[in-house]
Design goal:
The complex is a heterodimer of chains A (274) and B (324).
Chain A (H helix, E strand, L loop, with lengths): L1 H32 L3 H4 L14 H9 L2 H32 L5 H10 L9 H10 L6 H5 L6 H12 L3 H9 L4 H12 L1 H16 L3 H6 L8 H6 L9 H36 L1
Chain B lengths: L1 H10 L3 H55 L1 E3 L5 E4 L3 H8 L2 H32 L5 H9 L6 H12 L5 H8 L14 H26 L3 H9 L4 H29 L3 H6 L11 H11 L3 H29 L4
Antiparallel strand pairs in B: 1-2
The chains are: A mainly alpha (274), B mainly alpha (324).
Chain lengths: 274, 324
């Protein structure tokens, strides 16, 4: 019993140390966002703000169109997430329940897309999107990402786990595939949809290289590009930069708090059993 | 089958009925054919959107990359003339590209093992049902919510030579300040530190999910057998989570090959190219200097390396992985 409590104390201690390593950058960001400009530029650096200078947030909102950036990112991530859920569910249903010629080959083709790093395709994709006149548009930011092999595998996995009897009963009752798909398979796979949704949203909210390439005007800029330009605009006022970061972090953190339960286990399922 | 034989027997005396039977027999067959055709058509409709997108934005670019890599391009990005393998030859003959390969390799060695080890340790601690672990679980997952650009700027202030808290703490314990991002011997290490911090969120979530898939009874019987926490970890958790760990290591290596944002924001490949990883070099060649041919050649080399590593990892590591 004694050794159990000793190992428990050790576990707490190590966790606390690890938590400090993870949390420290967050803390510095948050505390600087609440400092005055003089405080954030002071030497030695201050770890605590003296007061809550909430006007940093209104300051950053006034100096750069961060609300517009957040809106852009929100539109882009939402469109990609919804599109991804639709294309993934449809393809996954076909691979899970429909018989058709060439199924194995097409499935292998889907699998092989996981081997192509996106960076390899970035030059031709840039040229394609430019030739279509999609630079600086929502279409250019979203359409290339509307399907992922990962999503197809994850959803297929969830579909295959649905009780067979249920599907057969529906078939005997004369339900066609489209009805089974819409009324049975998709609603019963909500946990899978939630996992894929949270993952896809976070991933595309955080996209960097592609928006950097295809957007040039301020009104189409996503939050990640906007944020990385914070420090180059005028002189660097760290308190304002950090206030901007806090505003940008907030939606992702809320998303994580709501969706963490779904991500744990859900991602592993898609990764291994696909 | 039996039904049909019965039918035939009954029908035998009267030929006309037999004919009817034959017609009746082929109708379900035709219906089945039609059904199968409709099923295949539906499958085609269901698969088409994803397949079309993969075709346009993944498969076609691969082919186009090969084409571009064999040509030189003008500054507008249009193909000028066929140059054969010159782009590839120039890549390996100039110092820039081999340097990028080495920097990328170092970056992988600095980030992947550390990220995996830390995430594994954090997950092992969080798996145990100790009170308060839900809070730690959220904390360890936090970096997944941080984008590469946000994370880079968060660390930029930590790395700041005078305002940064890292140098402040070093000073407190009597050490000289470090030029985190401007010292050529330090910059890659600093970028790696920040990258490990960023990687932990996703890897932690992935590995914790893998550990939660291990049945609780196995742990209980290990406990009854008197196995301590460390022994349980090495003998039980690690082998059973190895499929997830394997997947995590493959994705981490590929992810490290794709590193770009933190380098673009924090160091721009410098100082003296000490952080000039492959994708950053590709970006500079293609989108700063508009040499799409050279850029495509690099993209293809990157693709070949990633493919090779994936295959190697599958061949070698998969044998050692324990699947239940």
């Amino acid at each position: 019993m004694k050794s159990v409590s000793a190992s428990r104390v050790l576990a707490y201690l190590l966790s606390a140390l690890a938590a400090i390593f993870i949390l420290f950058p967050f803390w510095i960001t948050l505390s600087n966002s609440l400092m005055t400009e003089a405080e954030s530029a002071a030497y030695p650096p201050k770890l605590w703000p003296t007061g809550l200078h909430l006007d940093n947030f209104s300051g950053v909102l006034a100096s750069i169109p961060i609300a517009r950036f957040i809106l852009n990112s929100f539109v882009v991530s939402s469109v990609i997430t919804i599109g991804c859920l639709i294309t993934s569910c449809m393809a996954a249903y076909a691979f899970a329940f429909l018989r058709f010629p060439g199924k194995k080959i097409i499935f292998a083709l889907f699998l092989s897309t996981m081997m192509i790093p996106w960076e390899v395709a970035v030059i031709p994709n840039y040229l394609t999107v430019r030739s279509w006149g999609w630079l600086d548009s929502y279409a250019g930011l979203t359409v290339p990402f509307l399907a992922t092999a990962f999503g197809v595998f994850l959803m297929r996995q969830f579909f295959l786990q649905l009780p067979k009897e249920l599907m057969e009963a529906a078939r005997i009752d004369g339900c066609g595939h489209i009805r089974i798909f819409l009324r049975l398979a998709v609603p019963l796979s909500m946990p899978g949809l939630a996992t894929l949704g949270v993952y896809s949203f976070l991933n595309h909210w955080n996209m960097y290289l592609w928006p950097l390439l295809v957007t040039s005007s301020e009104k189409m800029r996503t939050v990640q590009i906007g944020v990385s330009m914070l420090q180059f605009s005028e002189m660097t006022a760290w308190n304002l930069v950090m206030a901007g970061l806090v505003l940008v972090l907030l939606p992702s953190l809320i998303m994580l708090a709501l969706g963490l339960g779904r991500l744990v286990g859900g991602l592993t399922a898609g990764a291994l059993k696909g | 089958m039996e039904n049909r034989i019965e039918n035939m027997e009954k029908a035998a005396p009267v030929p006309l009925q037999q004919e009817q039977g034959a017609i009746r027999g082929s109708e379900p067959a035709r219906a089945a054919n039609l059904g199968r055709f409709r099923e295949a058509a539906l499958a085609a409709v269901f698969i088409a959107p994803a397949l079309l997108l993969f075709g346009i934005f993944l498969f076609y670019p691969l082919v186009q990359s090969v084409y571009l890599s064999l040509h030189s391009t003008n500054p507008r990005g249009q193909v000028a003339n066929f140059v054969g393998l010159t782009n590839f030859r120039n890549l390996f003959n100039s110092p820039g590209f081999p340097n990028s390969l080495i920097v990328t390799l170092k970056f992988i060695l600095l980030t992947v093992p550390a990220s995996l080890a830390l995430a594994l340790a954090f997950a092992a601690v969080c798996r145990s049902r100790i009170r308060g672990m839900r809070i730690f679980r959220f904390v360890f997952a936090l970096p997944i919510a941080v984008s590469v650009s946000t994370g880079s700027i968060m660390w930029m202030i930590l790395f700041h030579p005078t305002l940064g808290t890292l140098n402040y703490f070093l000073g407190k314990i009597g050490l000289a300040p470090v030029q985190w991002l401007t010292d050529p011997n330090m910059a890659l290490l600093s970028i790696s530190l920040m990258t490990v911090w960023m990687n932990i969120g996703f890897l932690f979530i992935l590995l914790l999910g893998g550990m939660q898939g291990i049945p609780e009874e196995i742990y209980e019987s290990a406990k009854i057998d008197g196995s301590g926490p460390l022994r349980t970890f090495w003998r039980l958790t690690l082998p059973l989570v190895s499929p997830t760990l394997f997947f995590a290591s493959v994705t981490s290596v590929i992810g490290a090959f794709q590193a770009f944002g933190q380098i673009n924001i924090l160091t721009k490949g410098g100082p003296v190219n000490s952080t000039n990883v492959l994708v950053f070099k590709l970006y500079e060649d293609a989108f700063v200097n508009f040499r799409f041919g050279v850029g495509s050649a690099q993209a293809l080399v990157l693709f070949a390396i990633v493919l090779l590593i994936t295959v190697l990892q599958f061949v070698f590591a998969e044998r050692k992985v324990h699947y239940q």
